[in-house]
Inverse folding.
């Protein structure tokens, strides 16, 4: 892998540059005995110019090379191939790539493709060689230019510090870039979906069966994209989860912060927090293989017909998963309620529980509500538990014993194992993704707003 | 007089009621805690009881004759010829020798199925390593088939009706004969810890998934730690309070609560489709998890920077250090333990995450153990997800055992975080 060597070479050059920068600073200042900054800042200045431009070019080159090479190869393909639709070209490109790298190709290789593959290979090795030469040249050139600028009056410390500040700004902008990336990428694919399926059908349709027909005479592949059953399914499971998590989380937070002895608190609190650290796939496994059969069997004893992928099982386990969210957030807000309020209530003769119910909880209510909203957004976006324990059939029902499906389950089933991104089926996943993103975003914004506004009250 | 007596009575009665409700309330709180704690215990007990047996593997003792007629009929000693030989015949012959009575077709089939078909490959490898074995006889412990393994471990009941179990009466008879001569044992299964995935439970292991997780976490750590710390330093120490920094703050807080699967969609659309990065590669998984864990690390690092007292900064500035020198020479070293604790917790979160990795193709069935962040691979939680779907009883055991390993890693990481906090935390 030459890229490793290039990176290593840049690092080596950078060390040398640092050394020479420092040395040069000492030489230029030897006669006048005057130097603006400490010598190692001159070393750092040279090292920065040697490494950062070269690394930036390297990353950009690696990110863009495959797209550019593919486009050049496509442009040079005979027109018989370029006239095909997008999907077929994708297949041809795959064939060319596989052929060039000596892997298995689909069917016969025509002469045109063999030539293109040769072309692709040549371009690729050319790009590799050019990469090594250009990047190393930039590194050496940058280092030398930086060295030449060094003089006793050169303000190396200020320049280096400004560069460091710039890097810090770039690093913190990544959060914004990520959000923009999520919105743009998912939105872009979602818009392509809504070109093919009207948005009203997606939002208000009550039937979901994303299998589109490959042949027109196929049965059972109507391709209906109504998201209502998914939304009700998601809400049903989240509701069950909240029904478990809110009372238990709240009550344990109250008990731990108001009643429990220091010893019980020291033991029980970390154990409850373990629940937040268990990977969701473990919960999913537990829900699917232990809880769901248990609920089905006990339902059977009561004469109820329970689906083996019931919403109840997934919801219960998901509820347990979000107990720590509710309890730790409630714990925070309950502790933030000033002791004076409690003392006043106890002083006029209220019992402890009356104080909690009528003074502490109302005072902490906005914070608790914020915590519950955050927990709800967790539940809506949770994936693995429902993928493993909830069903795939999009039933429009609110019966918790039935099998329902959720938005996240459908995103996973639509995208896993599929490589093409132009059928409404796969694009639908992005439409679901953007809906999920927006719903959780709204919930989070409201929740964070409530929590923050409340906190300011007693500070 | 009666009025006072009346009101004391009323107060007493109501007091009794109020005290009763107080007790009820306390009991409810205790029950909530009891529920949470007992769920944790049940979950762990369930998984441990299902999984611990997967660390043992049933083996059967047989005398193998490295028959030259099968391995190398032409006495060529050519590794290519030896490599192509049918080594399954070796253990089949040994089984036939051991049970000469089994002559019918179905008995023979049951007999051959006692031993894992992976044994043929391991026999081949030993012969290729040491061709001198050809023509000798050796008594070996061979890996049993997964159904036999389940039978020996008691997951398949011998007294159940034959139609209800996947092991025939004939096979049980064979096993009982072998047991009578002490030729069946359970030994620690290195295969489970070191092998890659396989369709055969007795040959499947978590080695590939662990390596995949390791590479993914390496990529995540090497990106998320520097970027997260840098972002936290900027926001806490340098940023002026303006709209731009407000925007960053809001973004970080929101990203911390965005469903992880949305990050998977981002990875799919941007890294795979736009930049054309390889599918199923730990590199891409690491990038996605970096974006996902950054908010956690930034928030923890900021809290840690905030706890460094102002006096340290003022002292450094007072003796003439620049702002950057103050931060990097004096504040950062004090805040480092807290930042590392936050990073470890973020890494633990990344280690347990599977949903976004499903989106970028890390769910493929991959037998080879990855050797670089660019090789296709899967990660431990996704391996658990894949095995949980398999119908074989033996995979249930392996899934639970893989969960035990995953939980073990998580416990170790969290313990490290706690130790770091205890050891280096300063109270100012």
């Amino acid at each position: 892998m030459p890229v490793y060597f290039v990176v290593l070479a840049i690092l080596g050059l950078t060390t040398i540059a640092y050394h020479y920068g420092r040395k040069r600073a000492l030489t230029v200042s030897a006669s006048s005995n005057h130097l603006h900054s400490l010598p190692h800042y001159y070393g750092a200045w040279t090292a920065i110019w040697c490494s950062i431009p070269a690394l930036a070019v390297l990353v950009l080159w690696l990110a863009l090379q495959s797209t550019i090479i593919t486009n050049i190869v496509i442009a040079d393909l005979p027109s018989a191939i370029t006239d095909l639709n997008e999907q077929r070209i994708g297949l041809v490109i795959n064939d060319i790539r596989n052929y060039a790298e000596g892997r298995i190709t689909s069917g016969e290789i025509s002469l045109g493709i063999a030539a293109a593959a040769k072309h692709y290979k040549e371009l690729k090795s050319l790009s590799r060689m050019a990469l090594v030469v250009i990047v190393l040249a930039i590194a050496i050139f940058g280092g030398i230019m930086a060295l030449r600028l060094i003089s006793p009056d050169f303000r190396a410390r200020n320049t280096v510090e400004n560069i460091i500040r710039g890097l810090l700004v770039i690093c913190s902008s990544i959060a914004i870039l990520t959000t923009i990336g999520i919105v743009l990428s998912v939105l872009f694919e979602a818009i392509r979906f809504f070109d093919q399926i009207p948005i009203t059908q997606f939002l208000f349709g009550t039937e979901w069966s994303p299998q589109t027909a490959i042949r027109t005479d196929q049965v059972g592949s109507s391709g209906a994209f109504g998201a209502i059953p998914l939304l009700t399914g998601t809400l049903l499971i989240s509701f069950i989860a909240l029904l478990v998590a809110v009372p238990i989380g709240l009550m344990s937070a109250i008990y731990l912060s108001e009643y429990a002895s220091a010893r019980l608190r020291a033991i029980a609190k970390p154990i409850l927090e373990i629940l937040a650290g268990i990977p969701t796939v473990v919960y999913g496994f537990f829900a699917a293989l232990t809880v769901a059969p248990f609920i089905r069997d006990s339902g059977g004893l009561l004469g109820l017909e329970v689906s083996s992928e019931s919403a109840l099982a997934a919801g219960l386990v998901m509820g347990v998963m979000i107990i720590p969210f509710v309890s730790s957030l409630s714990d925070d807000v309950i502790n933030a309620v000033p002791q004076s309020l409690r003392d006043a209530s106890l002083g006029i003769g209220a019992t402890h529980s009356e104080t909690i119910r009528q003074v502490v909880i109302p005072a902490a209510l906005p914070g608790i509500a914020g915590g519950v909203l955050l927990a709800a957004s967790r539940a809506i976006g949770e994936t693995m538990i429902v993928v493993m324990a909830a069903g795939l059939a999009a039933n429009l029902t609110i019966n918790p014993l039935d099998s329902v499906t959720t938005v996240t389950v459908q995103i996973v089933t639509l995208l896993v194992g599929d490589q093409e991104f132009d059928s409404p089926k796969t694009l639908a996943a992005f439409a679901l993704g953007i809906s999920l993103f927006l719903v959780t975003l709204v919930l989070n914004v409201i929740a964070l707003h409530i929590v923050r506004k409340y906190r300011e009250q007693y500070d | 007089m009666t009025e006072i007596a009346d009101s004391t009575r009323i107060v007493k009665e109501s007091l009794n009621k109020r005290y009763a409700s107080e007790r009820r309330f306390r009991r409810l709180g205790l029950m909530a805690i009891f529920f949470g704690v007992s769920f944790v215990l049940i979950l762990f007990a369930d998984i441990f009881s299902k999984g611990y047996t997967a660390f043992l593997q049933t083996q059967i003792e047989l005398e193998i004759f490295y028959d030259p007629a099968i391995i190398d009929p032409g006495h060529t000693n050519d590794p290519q010829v030896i490599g192509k030989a049918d080594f399954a015949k070796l253990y089949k012959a040994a089984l036939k020798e051991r049970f000469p009575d089994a002559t019918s077709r179905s008995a023979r089939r049951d007999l051959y199925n006692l031993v894992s078909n992976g044994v043929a490959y391991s026999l081949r490898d030993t012969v290729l390593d040491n061709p001198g074995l050809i023509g000798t006889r050796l008594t070996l412990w061979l890996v049993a088939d997964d159904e036999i393994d389940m039978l020996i471990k008691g997951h398949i009941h011998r007294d159940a009706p034959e139609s209800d179990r996947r092991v025939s009466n004939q096979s049980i008879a064979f096993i009982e004969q072998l047991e009578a001569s002490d030729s069946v044992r359970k030994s620690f299964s290195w295969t489970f810890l070191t092998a890659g995935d396989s369709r055969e439970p007795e040959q499947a292991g978590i080695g590939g998934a662990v390596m995949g997780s390791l590479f993914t976490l390496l990529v995540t750590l090497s990106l998320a730690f520097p970027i997260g710390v840098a972002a936290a330093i900027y926001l806490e120490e340098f940023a002026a309070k303006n709209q731009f920094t407000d925007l960053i703050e809001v973004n970080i807080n929101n990203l911390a609560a965005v469903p992880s699967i949305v990050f998977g969609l981002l990875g799919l659309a941007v890294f795979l489709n736009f930049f054309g990065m390889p599918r199923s590669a730990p590199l891409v998984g690491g990038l996605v998890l970096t974006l996902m864990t950054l908010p956690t690390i930034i928030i923890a690092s900021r809290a840690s920077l905030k706890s460094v007292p102002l006096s340290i900064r003022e002292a450094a500035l007072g003796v003439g250090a620049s702002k950057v020198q103050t931060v990097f020479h004096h504040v950062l070293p004090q805040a480092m333990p807290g930042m590392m604790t936050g990073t470890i917790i973020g890494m633990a979160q990344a280690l347990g995450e599977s949903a976004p990795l499903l989106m970028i193709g890390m769910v493929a069935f991959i037998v080879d153990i990855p050797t670089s962040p660019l090789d296709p691979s899967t990660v431990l939680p996704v391996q658990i997800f894949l095995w949980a779907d398999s119908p074989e009883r033996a995979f249930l055991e392996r899934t639970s055992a893989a969960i035990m390993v995953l939980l073990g890693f998580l416990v170790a990481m969290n313990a490290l975080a706690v130790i770091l906090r205890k050891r280096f935390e300063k109270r100012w």
Summary: Residues 2-51 of chain B form the longest helix (50 residues).
